[in-house]
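Work Package 4 report. The design task specified in the project plan requires that, given a folded chain encoded as structure tokens, an amino acid be chosen for each position. We show below one input record used in the internal validation round.
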């Protein structure tokens, strides 16, 4: 358990504009506090104060190489050739090993000998930069940061080649916020795309989650749709049959049973998605509108 509570994010639709704002990409990983105690014991804590050390022993080793009395705030990520992958990171929770090493991307230092939370972000950032250089370990990376809002907006572009950036975080150049204040702002990166509908997961009161596919591969589900949107395919849905395999439902209870539409039905939905990670939706998609085509002969 650590006495340091990580600052929390407030979701917004647009990046704030004005003097004093600094912007950082938000990578898709686990928020964490990397700690080396005054006695030299390394530890790793989630934002909810859960001990993560047993899952990421390489980061415990990294923590031991930090100066004593150091607390870093950052993101635990799984590097890939094109960026980072949250799904691959989740796989580490089952392995308890180092077959695919993770990295810690630090974006703040809360303690380094002295408590630094009362200092401005720019001052903490300079200390963090020196610390990362001193440690000189590839598993400890420094989060990119810019004061240029236009540069930050580029991190939200749909065609960004770096995978695993789920948004942008905006912070004022001020002391480290208390968690209940939610001074930091987060804007999610989104993309609009057309995906085939292979079936649906029934919900209460006639609602349904659409089961989506990209080509032959299932990618996930939508948030529940209801009303006119659900009624538009009611006649088609009556002929759906139980699917052979369960579908991954992000942020639900793992995999879900679903009903598959008859073969030959070409049903397409325009949806808004956040992260498509290794061909799988990281969060459910948001339904925009139908693209219904005639059944093939």
């Amino acid at each position: 358990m650590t006495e340091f509570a990580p600052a929390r994010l407030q979701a917004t639709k647009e990046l704030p504009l004005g003097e004093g704002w600094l912007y950082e990409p938000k990578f898709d990983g686990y928020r964490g506090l990397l700690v080396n105690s005054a006695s030299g014991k390394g530890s790793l804590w989630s934002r909810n104060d859960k001990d993560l050390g047993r899952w990421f022993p390489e980061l415990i080793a990294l923590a031991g190489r930090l100066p004593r009395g150091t607390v870093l705030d950052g993101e635990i990520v799984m590097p890939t050739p094109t960026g980072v992958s949250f799904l691959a990171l989740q796989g580490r929770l089952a392995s308890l090993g180092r077959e695919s090493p993770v990295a810690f991307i630090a974006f703040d230092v809360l303690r380094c000998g002295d408590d630094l939370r009362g200092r401005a972000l720019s001052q903490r950032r300079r200390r963090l930069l020196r610390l990362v250089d001193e440690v000189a370990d590839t598993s400890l990376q420094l989060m990119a940061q810019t004061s240029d809002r236009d540069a930050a907006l580029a991190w939200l572009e749909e065609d960004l080649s770096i995978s695993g950036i789920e948004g942008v975080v905006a912070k004022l150049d001020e002391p480290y916020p208390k968690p209940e204040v939610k001074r930091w702002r987060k804007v999610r990166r989104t993309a609009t795309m057309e995906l085939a509908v292979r079936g649906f997961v029934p919900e209460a009161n006639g609602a349904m989650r659409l089961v989506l596919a990209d080509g032959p591969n299932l990618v996930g589900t939508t948030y529940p749709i209801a009303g006119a949107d659900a009624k538009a395919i009611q006649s088609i849905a009556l002929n759906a049959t139980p699917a052979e395999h369960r579908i991954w439902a992000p942020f639900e209870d793992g995999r879900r049973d679903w009903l598959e539409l008859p073969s030959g039905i070409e049903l397409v939905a325009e949806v808004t998605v956040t992260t498509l990670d290794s061909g799988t939706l990281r969060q459910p998609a948001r339904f925009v509108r139908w693209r219904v085509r005639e059944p093939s002969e």
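The chain has two domains: 9-188, 191-292. Validation will be extended to a larger panel in the next phase.
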